[in-house]
Design goal:
Blueprint (H helix, E strand, L loop, with lengths): L1 H4 L4 H7 L5 E4 L16 E5 L19 E5 L2 E10 L2 E5 L9 E4 L4 E11 L16 H9 L1
Antiparallel strand pairs: 1-2, 2-7, 3-4, 3-7, 4-5, 5-6
Length: 143
């Protein structure tokens, strides 16, 4: 994590030292909550809030985000309980589909994400089919 983030302010590290919260890290290829939470985001998780709250939310910012342990790793997502299953819901703009797993056998809520720290500025625009490729732009610049 430090390798990707570089230097982290000492004051911030002292805040992480407390035992009130658990901390997680969104993997570099976890696009479940992208663009709200991009890969590489640090997560502050409140384990006392490990029950899925059902309700109507006015916006994606009000809806609780949960840190979930699955058999093959962890994810960060919105959750809905349906009987003995849990729906792991990704952000609507994410390429990750909704996952339905048995609860708590295959997926267990560790807690609610209550804080995040993310690094901005490392993203490059997606190239469209109509845009020239980088090597074509370089050739055009030489002409």
């Amino acid at each position: 994590m430090v390798e990707q983030w570089g230097l982290v302010p000492v004051a911030y590290l002292f805040q992480l030292a407390g035992d009130k919260y658990t901390y997680g890290y969104l993997g570099s290829e976890d696009f479940t909550m992208y663009p709200l939470l991009p890969p590489g985001t640090f997560l502050q998780v409140d384990e006392s809030r490990n029950k899925v709250v059902q309700g109507m939310w006015r916006s994606e910012y009000e809806r609780p985000v949960y840190f979930v342990e699955m058999r093959d790793g962890y994810t960060c997502c919105w959750c809905t309980l349906k009987g003995d299953h849990i729906l792991l819901q990704s952000h609507p703009l994410s390429p990750v589909p909704v996952r339905v797993l048995r609860h708590p056998q295959d997926a267990e809520v560790i807690g609610q994400v209550v804080g995040v720290a993310l690094k901005l500025g490392d993203w490059r625009p997606v190239e469209s089919a109509s845009e020239p490729k980088p090597e074509e732009r370089e050739r055009a610049a030489l002409n």
